[in-house]
Amino acid sequence: MKKIILIIALITINMTNAQSIHKRYEQNAFKLVYDGAITNNEKGKVNIHPVSYKLNGIDIAANVYTPADYDASKKYPAVVVAHPNGGIKEQTAGLYAQRLAESGYITITADAAYQGASGGEPRHTDKPASRIEDIHGMADFITQYAGVDANRLGVLGICGGGGYTLKAVQSDKRFKAVATLSMFNSGEVRRNGFQNSQLATIQERLKKASEARAQEAAGGKMIYAGVASITDEEIAKTTTDLYREGYEYYYRTYAHPNSTFLYTMSSLLDLMTWDAATNMDLINQPLLMIAGGKADTKYLTDEAFPKAVNAKSKELFVIEGATHIQTYWKPEYVSQIVTKLKEFYQSNL
Hints:
This protein is of the alpha/beta class.
């Protein structure tokens, strides 16, 4: 009887979650799912502008946020926002883009090529070269946008977008100020496992990725890594904060149909030989790296930060008490982060 009651309770929770998610997504005209999201454009307030552009022949879907009382004849500083792994522009990347627009910046956040509402086949390809090119592409577009001062361009990379940002700015000197939030070194983690938990299986996983690539080349079925869906019970049993809270964020509280934890298995051929923290000495711009004090991913920021030996200035800002995923949405942490970002960009743009 207890087991039956538990099953009924889980079903009820899942139905409630599904209804809540559906309501959040469907009620917003721009399909934004973060708290405090714009519901409609109003004169005198921050406005959102869905845009699209071509990047290497692929259609990129993006949102541009303009400050209150935006005047295209004036000049504004701008910030590019790169979304997390598995994330899209309607989630935390949009939240920070909107909050920075509230502070007077024109901002852009785009779905990565092959992901979200952007084009590209095969779907869910997650290769470093593409993700870095996405950041260059956002810079291409926003520096041509009416009212943008191309000489005052900053960037914010969140989670995996933070790792790719560290790479993009090593060569792209259009970016005059560089910030990362909860930086995730996708190459290191895909290679070594989270917190170096899969060192013994590197060659085995490379073999699987190679076989997946061979199957694709032969016209066979696409093989995916990652998680397509998950039960509440499975979430509860997940031991790491990053993945347990990540599943809750992406599949429950801030879910969006365009967001997924999947990526092509063959992407590992590129990911596992790549590292966000190499050539950090090429970064000569001001650098701000933000991480939660309780984040189980903080070691990735701690590894990269000391390597930025030529940054014009650099600061590691720790949000005490915050886990990785909590920096995506928790109001008290978001407020601290936005305040810090405003100070940083105001000083350097």
